[in-house]
Amino acid sequence: MINFEEEELKKIIHEIARNNGLNENTKIIFSKGSEKGDGYLGEIVNIRAIDDVTEKSLDFVAKIGLKDENMRSIYPYSEVFRNEILAYEEIIKSLRNLQKEANLLSIFNPSPIFYFASSVLNEEYLILENIKISNFEMLGIKQLLDDEHTRMICETYGKFHGLSLAMKTLHKQKFFELAAKLSDVYSLKTIEKDIKFFFGKMWISIRNVMKEKDVKWQRYNNYADNSLDIMDDMCDLKDEKYFCFLHGDCWTNNLMFRYKNNNMGQKHLEEIKLIDWQACRIGPPVCDLSYMLYSGASKEVLSNLEIYLKIYHNSLSSVLSQLKLDVNIVYPFEEMKRQWRKYYHYAVILSGSIWKFRSFGENQGVDPLNYKSQDGSSYIDAIADADCDTDYFCEHIKYLFDHLDEIANGNILGPANTHETSKTK
Questions:
Q1: What are the CHK kinase-like domain coordinates in residue numbering (predicted)?
Q2: What is the C-alpha separation between 226 and 222, in angstroms, rounded?
């Protein structure tokens, strides 16, 4: 381990193991939990605790903050760890309690089991259930969302957002108490100088690639030149009625999928867990789903966007109905479409860096655990400037922009109302 003393971590795991029925002499085994290109801005360690007497074992994953001063100078580590700890300790727990209070037969739990955490400066970490042992897995970095995965993602986020909206309606004081503790890590008031300009740098890099490929679009000029203003506008909720808790950093590397085989031996998706809640915040529900789709959906999925939005909204409506709430009051379908037309720029700007990650070849990319600058540039600069598969990059940005033009022209989601027109259009 690079960022944590092994003996200290062993003490913590022994305590958790004892609290979960393992004996004093439990054996602790560490192994590497992430690879270059996984996208983690921290160290991931897999841990197995084995009781030699009963042969019972528990499997954990530890997420440990980097100690590197240069990385900490550009990334809000303290805020993201506090956010994630709050999400596991209080927000997700509150959503489970809401379901239990309503005596729901099936309790939706969107995340792994949370065991322990520290938010002490320079000693931040979380310890969670290792759901890989329960056959959850990630999609490959270049694997795009097909129909099956998109449907279940929409259903999963529909349940999560439905519960969050229900909490805001039924337990308003508790909702806003928790919301007040969250930091919006994409807000210009929170992020540091270097990362503040990251999105603009990324879209300048995308513009350069597109120009090399002779692909002309005013849209990428807008994102390259105005990303800070657009992001600031998208994070402002003063005139927004419909908002809830968001997962926040919702691209496919922050979801894990479990599959089952049917009688014919065919593999089918069974369940999804949401991980990495570091960007958890309040905002319009569509921000999660649009970020997920615009950073990783296939061309076929985007062409059927309205079908998936109906799946999402039906899932959300079902949750609200079980809690005796009317979706037409809490979050009407037309309001969801209005939000999508208004806030999709937020998702697109964030998606630029994800498409860059997806475009890295085997020996490309930048590893935050081992990054050392040779010329004073930051990790953020290095990601924006790194070589990648420009053909892949251009192909996927192009079909995303084709889709965005369809929205702007009113061919998807219908025409925008006059009051929806803004400087981001």
A1: 126-322
A2: 6
Q: Which residue has the tokens 């702007």?
A: 408
* 167 within domain boundaries: yes
Q: Are 87 and 98 in contact (CB under 8 A)?
A: no
Say how many domains are in the chain. Answer: 1
d(CA 244, CA 237): 11
Q: Is the residue at 189 inside a domain? A: yes
**Strand ranges, E, within 206-351:** 244-246, 255-261, 267-274, 281-283
Domain assignment of residue 370, yes or no: yes
Q: 387 Cβ partners below 8 Å, 6+ apart?
A: 364
CA distance 164 to 320: 10
C-alpha 284/C-alpha 246 separation (Å) is 8
Nearest of 85, 23, 30 to residue 59 by alpha carbon: 30
Beta bridge partners of 61: 46, 128
Q: Which residue has the tokens 């569509």?
A: 286
Residue 53 DSSP class = T
CATH code assigned at 284? 3.90.1200
Which token pair is 62?
């530890």
Q: pTM of the entire structure?
A: 0.92
Nearest to residue 2, comparing CAs of 285, 406, 367? 367
Give the list of residues 6+ apart from residue 35 with CB closer than 8 angstroms, or none: none
- Using CA atoms, how far residue 385 sits from 101, 228, 366, in Å, is 51, 19, 10
Q: Contact at 8 Å (CB) between 56 and 37?
A: no
CA–CA distance, 293 with 308 (Å, rounded to integer): 10
- Give pLDDT tens digits along the chain (425 positions): 666 788 889 999 999 999 999 987 899 999 987 654 454 567 899 999 999 888 899 999 999 988 777 777 767 788 889 999 999 999 999 999 999 999 998 999 999 999 999 999 888 999 999 999 999 999 999 999 999 999 999 999 999 999 999 999 999 999 999 999 998 887 755 555 556 678 888 898 888 888 888 887 788 888 988 888 888 887 788 889 999 999 999 999 999 999 998 777 788 999 999 999 999 999 999 999 999 999 999 999 999 999 999 999 999 999 999 999 999 999 999 999 999 999 999 999 999 989 998 998 877 776 665 666 666 666 677 777 888 899 999 999 999 999 999 999 999 998 877 445 444 44
In a domain, 347, yes or no: yes
The alpha-carbon radius of gyration of the chain (Å, integer) is 22
